[in-house]
Amino acid sequence: MATERTIEGAGVPVGEEAFLGLLDVVLLAVLIAGAAFYFLRSRKKEEEPARSYSIQPTTVCTTSATDNSFIKKLKASGRSLVVFYGSQTGTGEEFAGRLAKEGIRYRLKGMVADPEECDMEELLQLKDITNSLAVFCLATYGEGDPTDNAMEFYEWITNGDVDLTGLNYAVFGLGNKTYEHYNKVAIYVDKRLEELGANRVFELGLGDDDANIEDDFITWKDRFWPAVCDHFGIEGGGEEVLIRQYRLLEQPDVQPDRIYTGEIARLHSLQNQRPPFDAKNPFLAPIKVNRELHKGGDRSCMHIELGIDGSKMRYDTGDHVAMYPVNDKSLVEKLGQLCNADLDTVFSLINTDTDSSKKHPFPCPTTYRTALTHYLEITAIPRTHILKELAEYCSDDNEKELLRNMASISPEGKEQYQSWIQDACRNVVHILEDIRSCRPPIDHVCELLPRLQPRYYSISSSAKLHPTNVHVTAVLVEYNTSTGRTNKGVATTFLKNRKPVSDEIKVPVFIRKSQFRLPTKPETPIIMVGPGTGLAPFRGFIQERQFLRDEGKTVGESILYFGCRKRSEDFIYETELEEWVKKGTLTLKAAFSRDQAKKVYVQHLLEQDADLIWKVIGENKGHFYICGDAKNMAVDVRNILVKVLSTRGNMTEADAVQYIKKMEAQKRYSADVWS
Ligand code: NAP
User: Fold this and answer.
1) 59-89 burial, b for 16+ CB within 10 Å, e for fewer?
2) Residue 148 catalytic?
């Protein structure tokens, strides 16, 4: 968001005006402006080196802000609808795009806008455009935070005291009920815009990614448009027309060195590596180690070490590493065959909306093979709008009807989408295999599929012990579906096949800072709860505490609650953990869920250790950490903690909940959980 800096307030005190002539005032103003300019410029320069490892927005697009006036763009192209998005993984942006595209049906020509690239103070002027409407598709991220690209807008409406009277708006939130701060950002923005005088045209919509966010979105959208038409007195929507957002340009003659081969943004950035490294400019890290951690059973868990020497990237214990995976070769080939495509064709997709700052959906020109391998999420479960567009390419009427039905909001359609697509985990390749008459052109498939996102892992090493290596602990994702297929996780399959024969095997990575930190004072005792791969960041914590002890520092008690299925199969890092126990650095409590008839989980051990937990947390003001599955384990563990605090700390349940909230605020309770 662009804000203009003025030197107002730095001027001359009113009472002293009489002592200064006009020329003095002008000279003084020039001097102050010069000083302010110099100060701001030098401060900006000072800040720049820190960016070498700062975390950039993770939604990757190749856009650049050319003109941050969205009002100018709306006016110049006769539009009245602007859909802003706050998106970390691309879904918010996708929803915004769908809404903007649909506007035309209701005579509200729309555009999508990234708040980070806009001067959001222009919202004050939106009312000057007839039938204008601002929609916000906002994701909530982390501990109830706005996404990186919506941060500045969020702060502006939070702190600013602007009058937004006359601004028509609606908000749709993207969240996940597994997390405590469900849709916090959208709920706040919806309320705050009203407080600032804006006019809510339709009620807040909340999408739950733990259930079916697509369903939530299309259901909300279905009531949103009639409400909008009602508000503006627009009579009836036109027929739904499917419009392509991008046009295809085949470029057989383009110079080979102008063709993108998997770069995230800058051409040749993978061959010609230049720091600072971040989400748009990842570092090609060599895989130094890739070994199996499981000793038995039918699953695989990998211990991977990535070299970051020479990258100028640094990490802190508890941070995350992000990796850009590539899709499975055979799946790419299959998709090419199903679309009758020559995967080596060089092409560009060019936005038909010339006002959009996003010229291409991914780096272009490129080949279909590169696009399907590096840029597109081909194993994701397609959303309904993709099915709707694919339906147009069915020569068989029954198959066309099936796809259309699944994309509709009828109860039967939704049910069918749930069972045929979601429960059966059918991706676009499976759909084209099973709907045999559907043969879309490959370029349209490339337009429809979401952008391949980086995958995040909790770093499982200590930065103090391994400053130039990042360790990752990852379970291979692989499962059978009801259609008899085996679905494989993109990133873990990609990693599984990359054994370090030399430094040749490299992965594009960047570091993302986290809030998951050891206590500042090493003497502070800690309790860590991390079953399965939830152990990852704690391995880093314990390494760090051992390192400090080796340096002669006094280190507080470190208690780990770990859980796995069987001691003999998936007790990962067993030898290391036992070594730390022997050295007196670690107290280990392990729950082997399947080693006896009745399941034993980490929370059962916590419950048995109520006195110990109270001593560490209540009496010695220790820190409590959870890492792993958000949906069940983390909820159960938190509930056990409430129980322990209320029984041992003599609190009511409500007080115990408050106690944990206070611990959270003091950074004494932290969770690094996923769902
Ligand atoms: P795991 O091997 O599946 O589980 C570790 C241990 O936790 C097992 O003993 C398991 O017991 C137990 N467990 C199961 N339900 C529990 C509960 N409600 N409370 C406490 N313990 C419980 O662990 P994992 O492979 O590391 O995966 C953990 C979870 O996170 C899985 O759901 C996995 O799909 C998910 N995961 C997600 C990501 C991601 O990035 N999205 C990455 C890795 C893992 P039983 O199996 O015997 O019941």
Assistant:
1) bbbbeeeeebebbebbeeeebbbbbbbbbbb
2) no
